[in-house]
Amino acid sequence: MLDAARQARLKAYAPYSHYLVGAAILDDQGRIHPGCNVENVAYPQGVCAEAGALSAMVLAGSTKVRGVLVVGTGGAWITPCGGCRQKLREFCAQDTPILTANDTEMGPSYTMAQLLPDSFGPEHLNT
């Protein structure tokens, strides 16, 4: 996952912020789906790396995330933005690991529940 996220980050399209982000999602079939951020001059029309990776996963026929890794630019650790946390929640269990990394090393890890506590998910609509 780390190599896939780092490679995806290098292909990000970020001409405005110059902040490249790569993500990789491990699905329930053991496949890795990378994604990168794609900015647009008409903010907020861009796409986050996590959203791109989720789209790739769904396109490949999966709807269950077993792990997520996000790589940012430079030495700082980044976690998914609020919108991506909710997008991930659609496909993640509460204990799904969300890992962080930068160009050279792994960073802190979290669970979906830690990043989006008391969240609203698909099970709330299953009555």
Automatic annotation (TrEMBL):
EC number(s) on file: 3.5.4.5
Active-site positions on this chain = E50
- Where is substrate bound in this sequence? N37, V38, E39, N40, V41, A42, Y43
Query: What Pfam families does UniProt report for this protein, alphabetically?
Result: dCMP_cyt_deam_1
Q: Where are the transmembrane segments?
A: none
What does the entry list as the binding residues for Zn(2+)?
C48, C81, C84
GO MF annotation: an example:
identical protein binding
Q: Which reaction does it catalyse?
A: 2'-deoxycytidine + H2O + H(+) = 2'-deoxyuridine + NH4(+); cytidine + H2O + H(+) = uridine + NH4(+)
Q: Which GO terms describe its biological process?
A: nucleobase-containing small molecule metabolic process; pyrimidine-containing compound metabolic process
**An example Gene Ontology CC term for this record:** cytosol
Q: Cite the CMP/dCMP-type deaminase domain residue spans from the record.
A: 1-123
CDD domains found in the cross-reference section = cytidine_deaminase
Give the Gene3D superfamilies listed for this entry.
Cytidine Deaminase, domain 2
Q: Record's PROSITE patterns? A: CYT_DCMP_DEAMINASES_1, CYT_DCMP_DEAMINASES_2
Note the InterPro entries from the entry. Answer: APOBEC/CMP_deaminase_Zn-bd, CMP_dCMP_dom, Cyt/Deoxycyt_deaminase, Cyt_deam_tetra, Cytidine_deaminase-like
* Family to which the UniProt record says this protein belongs: Belongs to the cytidine and deoxycytidylate deaminase family.
Query: What is the protein's name according to its record?
Result: Cytidine deaminase
The species is Rhodoferax aquaticus
